């Protein structure tokens, strides 16, 4: 497996994988657009000095992705900046092999070099498998976003 920073040449495949994530998460969020839903500003994640979009390749195919983006923290928190993790994806046939853990570890190491030591990510609370996997990596529940739709 090869771990490397994404480039603009990867955009087409990254957009496909973004749609795969949206499709997989649609059962957890009925308000996601059926067409045209996007989660990430992929070109900015690739070119910004405050982010690392990492891909994992096996035999020339992208099998996993993830990014860390340095963001300003809320004024109420003790840290001024934090690392936000997103686009955590592993192709289904490679899940359960520890690839996501390795991606997260590499992203955190990259951010620690930039003096970032606090990390956040979003996960649907009803996605029990993902919540469990992140807890095994040391993440804790901090804030639950709640929503209501009324016509």
UniProtKB/TrEMBL annotation:
The organism's place on the tree of life at top rank: Bacteria
InterPro entries recorded: Acyl_CoA_acyltransferase, GNAT_dom
GO molecular-function term, one example from the UniProt record: acyltransferase activity, transferring groups other than amino-acyl groups
Every N-acetyltransferase domain range: 1-151
PANTHER family: N-ACETYLTRANSFERASE (PTHR43072)
Name this protein carries in UniProt: N-acetyltransferase domain-containing protein
Organism: Pseudoalteromonas citrea
């Amino acid at each position: 497996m090869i771990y490397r920073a994404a480039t603009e040449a990867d955009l087409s495949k990254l957009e496909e994988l973004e749609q795969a994530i949206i499709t997989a998460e649609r059962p957890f969020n009925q308000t996601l657009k059926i067409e045209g839903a996007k989660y990430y500003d992929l070109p900015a994640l690739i070119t910004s000095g405050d982010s690392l979009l990492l891909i994992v390749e096996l035999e020339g195919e992208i099998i996993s992705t993830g990014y860390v983006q340095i963001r300003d923290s809320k004024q109420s928190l003790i840290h001024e900046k934090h690392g936000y993790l997103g686009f955590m994806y592993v192709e289904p046939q490679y899940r359960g092999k520890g690839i996501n853990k390795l991606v997260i570890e590499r992203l955190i190491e990259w951010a620690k070099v930039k003096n970032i030591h606090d990390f956040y990510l979003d996960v649907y609370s009803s996605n029990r498998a993902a919540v469990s996997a992140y807890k095994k990596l040391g993440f804790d529940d901090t804030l639950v976003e709640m929503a209501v739709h009324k016509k």
